[in-house]
Specification:
Layout lengths: L9 E5 L3 H12 L3 E6 L2 H7 L5 E4 L5 H6 L7 E4 L5 H13 L4 E5 L3 H9 L4 E3 L1 H14 L5 E6 L2 E7 L9 H8 L3 E8 L2 E4 L12 E7 H9 L6
Parallel strand pairs: 1-2, 1-4, 2-3, 4-5, 5-6
Antiparallel strand pairs: 7-8, 8-11, 9-10, 9-11
The structure holds adenosine-5'-triphosphate.
Adenosine-5'-triphosphate binds next to helix 1 and strand 2.
Amino acid sequence: MARDGERAERIVVIGLGRFGTSTARTLHGLGYEVTAIDIGEKQVADASGFVTLAAQGDGTDEDLLRSLHVEQSDVGIVAQGESLEASVLATLVLKRLGIPWVVAKAASDLHGELLRRIGADQVVFPERDAGTRLAHSLAVRQINDYIPLTPTTGVAKLPALPHFVGHTLAALYRDANLPLSVLLIRRGQTLISAPADEERIQVGDELILAGSDRAIDAFANGREQPA
Ligand code: ATP
């Protein structure tokens, strides 16, 4: 992203499937300078409307990447994960070009380990993560977002439900009757970090809380459950 007086960060995205396309589009919308590369003509034509530069070619071809000045990128994203060989080679080439932060998409745990060993700075598992988030969001249906910490605990983003409004956190904790912590409340543009137990929830607040799934569930449903 471009901060005042600084150049926009440059990001190269290799592979324009659903994951690569949505990543490239979002990054461009956030103000990054995005170069997108795919071997498919159609994928490149589609992306040309929403990235800085869309180029057709093999993302493992070092000469092609150099001709596109990819070595000047701050971040490289290997967004194609179906072909293990292409994913490994593209990651290796991006690191050889000296890109400081390379993110690669893995299709399996072993694939992820391989990517890390050859130098990927970050490995993402979009399908696995989406499945985990969906499973947790069904357990606590009101949550907007969820980061798992262990198989049964996590950090959840929850809107201020109608039965929260006007109540203090202490009262809501009491109703949940299980240990958990509200880490942050977003109230409009204001962030209230580590809110006091006396903090009263207002309409439109958003809460970030951490605890076991059972505690989060009890907190969300506290006043709707029979005592
Ligand atoms: P998604 O789940 O994101 O839709 P996918 O699993 O359908 O992805 P992938 O095999 O991960 O498909 O490929 C995503 C894109 O990467 C495709 O558009 C494909 O043309 C492109 N691609 C595959 N190999 C290369 C390569 N060597 N260089 C550049 N692009 C590639």
